[in-house]
Specification:
This protein is mainly alpha-helical and 98 residues long. It has two helices and two strands, in the order H-H-E-E. The protein is elongated and about 70 Å long. The chain starts with a helix and ends in a 5-residue tail after the last strand.
Length: 98
């Protein structure tokens, strides 16, 4: 097989691997969004007075293993004003239509 064809095949495989990894992480973050929203709803955290502390919101030095997508999803939800955060680090729902 010519060297050019081998190079094209390797590049296609790498592009496919990158696309697959991005799709996987996007899917995991979407699931984390839904889990966070359901967690806050089930705990009744619908305003600043009923805000709750989320154990996965804080960084742990002992966390070993797979990446926890809930931290990234929570930051995004706070940035998009779907979830609010109190001054003492507790979370509550802002957008109750979800």
């Amino acid at each position: 097989m010519p060297e050019t064809a081998q190079l094209i095949i390797v590049i296609c495989i790498m592009v496919a691997a990158i696309a697959l990894a991005r799709t996987y992480h996007g899917w995991k973050i979407k699931r984390a969004y839904l889990n966070i929203i359901e967690d806050l709803k089930s705990k009744g955290a619908l305003d600043p007075q009923s805000a709750v502390s989320l154990p996965y919101a804080h960084k742990s030095v002992l966390q070993i293993g797979l990446r926890d997508h809930r931290k990234v999803a929570l930051k995004s939800l706070v940035r998009d004003n779907i979830v609010g955060i109190t001054e003492d680090g507790r979370y509550y729902m802002i957008d109750r239509t979800l």
